[in-house]
Amino acid sequence: MVIQVENLSKIYRINQKTPGLGGALKSLFRPQYLDKVAVDGISFEVGQGEIVGYIGVNGAGKSTTIKMLTGILAPTTGSVRVLGRDPHQERVANAREIGAVFGQRTQLWWDLALIESLNMIGKLYDLPPAHYRDQLARFTEMLDLGEILHIPIRNMSLGQKMRAELAATLIHDPKVVYLDEPTIGLDLMVKEKIRAFIKQENRERGITVVLTTHDLGDIEELCQRVIMIDMGKVIYDGALQTIRDRFGKYRTITLELSAMLGTGDLDLLDDTEIEAIDGHKWRIRFDRTRTSASKVAAHVMNQVDVNDFSLTEPDLTGIVKQIYQGALNDIKVSTGELAQVTV
Ligand SMILES: Nc1ncnc2c1ncn2[C@@H]1O[C@H](COP(=O)(O)OP(=O)(O)OP(=O)(O)O)[C@@H](O)[C@H]1O
Ligand SMILES: [Mg+2]
User: Fold this and answer.
1) pLDDT digit string (tens) for 76-131?
2) CB distance 61 to ligand 1 below 6 Å
3) What would the pLDDT profile of 163-174 be if each residue is shown by its tens digit?
């Protein structure tokens, strides 16, 4: 296993200040602390070459976990091993083999042109010149760096900065990469470029990726497995497909009828619901584990003339929203399986 996380917790200790000068002095001499449990006893493993989506609502504890995985933060309790090392204790050795992108802030030298930053990183990591040139050529092509190599970071647009950031993070050929919201605020074209790049580095070089994002498009494109956390605890760890199967059991058929109808005019199968868009257009929602699209459609077509119909697959955004919102309390954690969830 490349990453092994066992019973990992992080408690932030926050100094509670009372307002005013008196309060400031008081908290200086007799500080009052408030403990915030950001990560609460999580365990998981990631194998070589996996791309794992690490998802959850704001404040769930994702960035805190990533910071412990990278070695920036020390765990309060529990353990992290990355490539057999403790990333916090062995930060230097760890840094050679990992890369991290934090989408919310840049890690590059603000005043240097991108190419100068990259050259510097190449030297810092002692990359053999030929290998460095290869990497640079590949990245330039994949991330379209040609036009931005000579621009200082501070003058770059967000999308340019993020491409620069990715190049700088991966140029030393890390085995493990942590991406904390790498596509935040980017337009679809840049997102696509970044996804394709991550995919390529994973496929061709076998890098292991832990990806945090609120953009489920990233997850759909890149991850077969997701770990979902809520209030510092893992609530799901398993295949993306399992979530789809378990939660995406409702499908919608939209029908365009040749005649105007009222709701009561149609006889419906059990386990289906009908909703009017207008008198001609109707939406029928059904549970695909109980009936099928063809049965539902045929049942309607036996009664009325249908001009057109379309079937909508549930999208991941809707599914994940349902999980975040409603069913959390009933979910029991177990690898690959969601128990007792009714959505
Ligand atoms: N340095 C800190 N000191 C105190 N509390 C913190 C600190 N960093 C994070 N927290 C708190 O820990 C919790 C988890 O934060 P974290 O940044 O890990 O969440 P997240 O899942 O990355 O959220 P987001 O999706 O908004 O980025 C939050 O309640 C946050 O306020
Ligand atoms: Mg975060």
Assistant:
1) 999 999 999 999 999 999 999 999 999 877 888 889 999 999 999 999 999 999 99
2) yes
3) 999 999 999 999
Fold of 3-244: Rossmann fold (3.40.50)
Q: Is 338's pLDDT higher than 70? A: no
Distance, in Å, from the CA atom of 185 to the CA atom of 248, rounded to the nearest integer, reads: 28
Domain 3-244 matches domain 249-313 at the CATH topology level: no
Domain boundaries, the chain: 3-244, 249-313
Sequence-distant (6+) residues with CB within 8 A of 173 are 127, 131, 135, 205
Q: Which of 12, 39, 179 to mutate to test the pocket of ligand 1 (most atoms within 8 A of CB)?
A: 12
**Ligand 1 atom with least separation from CA of 10:** 12
| Cβ neighbours of residue 230 closer than 8 Å, sequence gap 6 or more | 56, 57, 60, 324, 328
User: Is ligand 1 within 6 A of the CB of residue 9?
Assistant: no
Question: Is residue 15 lining ligand 1, measured as CB closer than 6 Å?
Answer: no
Class of domain 249-313: alpha beta
Distance 28 CA to ligand 2 centre (A): 30
